[in-house]
Amino acid sequence: MLDCAIIGGGPAGLTAGLYATRGGLKNVTMFEMGLPGGQITQSSEIENYPGFFEHDKTGMDFMDTWQKQCFHFGLKHEMKKVERVSKTGEHFTVTLEGGEEIEAMTVIVCTGSVPKRAGFKGEEEYFGKGVSTCATCDGFFYKDKPVTVLGGGDTALEEAFYLSNICSDVYVVHRRDTFRAAPPTIERVKQKENIHFVFDSVIEEAVGNAMGLTGVDIKNIKTDEITHMENTGLFVFVGHNVRNEVLNDEEGGFICEVNDWGQVIVDLSMKTSVAGLFAAGDIRIEAPKQVVSAAGDGAVAALQVISYIQEQQ
Fold it and tell me: How many CB atoms are closer than 10 A to CB 119?
């Protein structure tokens, strides 16, 4: 039986493995189908992780040292897909693809979430080269430059407000003529002189060259008129897909409490509503979706796992 099964190999999962193994747990396995590292491995440059300020290093370079450190202390990596987690008595059953079952005293779920794609032409081609889904991560690259934001919900407007303090102008493109965000958020954004609204419109195409994005074509859905806007930053905020499938029960519900968006409800100790089950990183409620925060979540969850096991014994 495993002391702890960690599902997901991003910053939260790796840090959880590091703290669990250095904390004395002997049987800790991280289940991650691909190469550990998470979404940050797709980044071409990192500026906002404390102590890491090397412009010639990519997200893959950044995470490579994490893997070496975590595995050094005894964390095991299984490249197997987890289908389901269930609690059986005092312990958990981790069901893998193909039906194999593994018992674990505790489980930390770190499967994260992924930003939804809007589906316009050029979105994938220029993702990470001008198209972004994180203002906090990439906004500074466009300091004193104009950028475009796609979306009309709370996240889109909050990120537009954040960008307005960095960029010269922020153009918010929304397919409706009213926003879906909370009224206080809308009012705050309207008061910023460098935030401009482009209603009844969608992104038709992201355009660029070998160096990256150079501009966007914006289509008015009522008139079909297309306007080209020159800028090198396009931020897409049309929602997230929470990777919570492993927490589904056989009846189609969840084994622990989640909110309306499928994010796992945890307390400050990363505890879920099920004893011995923890969630860390972008899968949890109110996650900042930053590497440094996910790593902190993983450390907290692992320390709580150690305490939980000690109490059980």
Answer: 11
Catalytic residue (one of 64, 134, 169, 200): 134
Catalytic site residue from 70, 110, 137, 256: 137
Domain ranges across the chain: 2-115+240-312, 131-236
Task: Choose the catalytic residue: 3, 138, 282, 297.
Answer: 138
Does residue 137 carry a catalytic annotation? yes
**81: nearest Cα among 98, 65, 102, 106:** 98
Q: Decide if 134 is catalytic.
A: yes
Q: What is the pLDDT of residues 159-174, one digit of tens each?
A: 999 999 999 999 999 9
CATH of domain 2-115+240-312: 3.50.50.60
Cα–Cα distance between 186 and 188 in angstroms, integer? 5
Same fold for the domain at 2-115+240-312 and the one at 131-236? yes
Q: What is the pLDDT of residues 105-158, one digit of tens each?
A: 999 999 999 889 999 999 999 999 999 999 988 999 999 999 999 999 988 999
CA angle 281, 120, 208 (to 5 degrees): 95
Where does 131-236 sit in CATH, by number? 3.50.50.60
